[in-house]
Amino acid sequence: MNTPSHLILNLAILGRRATPAWNWPIAIGSVLPDVALFFFYGWAKAMGLPEREIWSTVYYQPGWQDIFAVGNSIPLALLGLGIALWRRWPRWAVLFGSMLLHHLQDLPVHHDDAHRHFVPLSNVRFQSPISYWDPARFGAYVALVEWGLVVVASVVLWRRSRSRWGRFCLVSVNVFYGVMYGLMYLHGGGFA
User: Fold this and answer.
1) Mapping DSSP to helix (H, G, I), strand (E, B) and coil, where does residue 185 land?
2) DSSP letter assigned to residue 111
3) What is the arithmetic mean of pLDDT over 26-46?
4) Which of 16, 63, 69, 186 has the most CB atoms within 10 Å of its CB?
C-alpha cells in the first residue's frame, strides 16, 4: 500500500475523538515502516541513479533488504507492543499497534517487492498473488480498492476532524490518488 493510505486508514481505525493525544503516535507508527524506503530513495536519487535501476536492481540488494526487513518486521512490532502494554505506556502501545496494522495492510498486496515480515524468526517472504501497483498482478484493481478504502476512511476522519488543515490534507490526498490512478491505470492502460 502507499504510505498516505496507511496514515489515513490507521487514523480511521485506531483513532478516537476521545483520545486525540493518540493521533501522533498512530501517525508516526503508520509511516515508520516506510521511513527507510524514503531514505533509500533520496540516497539513490542523490547518487544520480535512474528510476528503473533504483526499483529493479538497487532496491533488491541484500543490504537494503535487511534494513527494510527490520522496519517491516511483525515479530519486532509485536515485541514493542507487548513491552508497551506490560509497562503501561499507552502512546507507545498505540505506535507499535499502528506499525503492526501497517504490516498487516502490506502483507496481502506485495508480490515481487514483498517484505520479509517475519524477521528475525524467518526470512520467508509472503509473495501475494496480487499487488498494489503492478498491473500484471491486478494492480489496477487493487489500487482502486485501496483508493476506495481511503475515501471511506477519509469520510470517517472528516467527521471526527474539526481542523481545516486536517480536512484540507484529506481532500488533497484523495484528489492526488484520483489523479495518479487516472494517469497510471486509465490513461496508461494499466487494466489488462
Assistant:
1) helix
2) S
3) 97
4) 69
Q: Enumerate residues 6+ apart whose C-beta is below 8 A from 32.
A: 71, 95, 99, 102
Question: Where do we find the cell 533488491?
Answer: 60
Could you count the other beta carbons within 10 Å of the beta carbon of residue 165? 8
SS3 assignment, position 181: helix
Backbone CA torsion sign across 122, 30, 146, 20: positive
3-state secondary structure of 93: helix
Q: Which residue has the cell 486525540?
A: 20
pLDDT range class, residue 178, cuts 50, 70, 90: confident
Task: For residue 133, give the 3-state DSSP assignment.
Answer: coil
pLDDT 10s digits, 53-66: 999 999 999 999 99
In the block, residue with C-alpha cell 515481487: 112
Q: Output the pTM of the full model.
A: 0.91
How far apart CA 131 and CA 115 sit, in angstroms, is 13
The residues spanned by each domain of the chain are 3-187
Dist. CA 118–CA 13, nearest whole Å? 24
Which residue from 113, 140, 135 is spatially nearest to 54, judged by alpha carbons? 113
CA 178-182-188 angle, 5° bins: 155
Cell of 27: 501517525
Q: Which of 128, 170, 131, 125 is nearest to 2 (CA)?
A: 131
